[in-house]
Amino acid sequence: MKNTKQSQNDLKQIIDTIQNGICVINKKYKITNCNKTFQKNVNLSMEEIINQPCAKIIPLYNKGILKEHCARTVCNKECGTAKVFSTGEAIEYVEVDVDEKNSKHYHKINVFPAKNEKNETYQVVMIIRNITMRARINMEHQKLSEFNEKILNSAPISIVALDNGGKVISANKLARELMDKPKNQIIGRRLIDTPEIKKNHGLRELYLNLLEEGELFSYENLQYTATPKGEKKYLNIIAVPLFDKNKKVSGAISMAINNTEAIVAKTNLEDMNRNLEKIVLERTKELDQINKKLQEMIELKSKFIADASHELRTPLTVIQGNLDLAISEAKNRNEDIPEAFDLITSEIMRMTRVLSDLTMLTNTDAGTEKLQKTEINIGKLIKACGQSLMILAEQKRISLIYRPGIKNIKIFADEDKIEKLLLNILRNAIKYSGEKGKIKIWSESKENFAIIHIQDNGIGIPKEDQPFIFERFYRVDKARSRAEGGTGLGLSICRWIAEAHGGHIEVASELGKGSTFSVYLPIR
Ligand code: ADP
């Protein structure tokens, strides 16, 4: 067994090994004892310390790191030591000092009372602990935490961290706003105990699975009633587990994105759509009725034109017959045939043409004009058309020139209609060309189309009129067209014929120089 002295020595050795400065101060504010760390820090020998006033020694501690503290307080005995002597209660405080390099040092000072049997404090023990390192780490840690919190709070999603029991250990600003509760009511609460999750079994299961099995999940459009206004919100949730070193679930992060705006917009859009559908339905009904009426009117118009054509054609035939008779009688009697007879004949021909054009256009409107397709040879048809207009051309000494390009391209089309189309364009070329004009005709095949070009060197068509010449009754120069027996219907019929075959017509023209009409017809 060790004797008391040895025990005391052992204790002193132990105290000496402690890295904190320890000193004992008596009621006269003199140091009666200290450990090695204290001695080293004040840089004096034991003899120079013992029995010296603490106000003289403590300011030397750690190159004067507590100098200010002691100089300020001990001399008037209002320092911590004096307080412990007067109250008999231990105190603890932290001293911050700045060294010559302007860096801060933190010392934690504990002063304990040592009491006699009468419970009087007869001396105090001062422990000076250098906590600079820890304080700096704490500060760094705090800065980092503040920085993390700033990042989390500025995130546009709500983020909640859970421990492995599902309790909220941290919630960012948005999460707090979403839950509409102060921080202290959120922290420590089990997330699955919030009413919206509690009553949603599926979601509850997902959270439990996340915390027990570490299975992450996403959940769309959780309906959430935000208090106190009771407005509905929709959240998209993504939750991921957190694992410890042993790969055990140590918690989870649950993130929620407020999807309310998108849902509200979608609902509004759906409402709008429904309204729109209703309006469209009503309008369609109205349009159907209008269409029906229009159809009836078109049919009426067609019937009227058909009837009128028929009614007009009969007297025209009668007039033509009587005229022919009058001419042959005059011829028989060797009498001069009156000039008016020629005029009447040409007017009858013009009216007959107008009637036939009108009938055809009415039929196209009514959809009763049908194509009778057979295989036709474009080259041959062009020549036949030229032949039938030869007399008309010769009257104006116009030459029809078939370019070598003319090909025997075969197409599948309505021969009568294509013939009508070519005759119309050729007749126009003759009509709108001067004496001794030249009309060139050629054809080619390009990308599954047979193209027929009819070019004259006549009066041409002004640029501003070109887009309209295929419209019904459109005539550039009414007087001239009428003088030439025109009706303004020819080109609109040509366009219908080309388009009914799946083709089209193009025109290139220069005023005073002539025009080229190109008819595109599909080969197959
Ligand atoms: P129209 O019976 O008046 O000739 P069209 O529909 O055949 O009617 O032609 C419409 C208008 O296009 C004509 O009035 C005429 O002004 C113009 N036009 C057609 N072909 C030619 C052409 N080859 N040269 C000049 N103008 C033309």
From TrEMBL:
The keyword Membrane does not apply. It catalyses: ATP + protein L-histidine = ADP + protein N-phospho-L-histidine. This is histidine kinase. Its EC number is 2.7.13.3. Residues 307-524 form the Histidine kinase domain. The keyword Transcription regulation does not apply. GO terms for biological process: regulation of DNA-templated transcription. It is an enzyme of class 2 (transferase). Residues 7-52, 144-214 form the PAS domain. Keywords: Kinase, Phosphoprotein, Transferase, Two-component regulatory system. InterPro entries: HATPase_C_sf, HATPase_dom, His_kinase_dom, HisK_dim/P_dom, HisK_dim/P_sf, PAS, PAS-like_dom_sf, PAS_fold. NCBIfam families: sensory_box (TIGR00229). PROSITE patterns: HIS_KIN (PS50109), PAS (PS50112). GO terms for molecular function: phosphorelay sensor kinase activity.
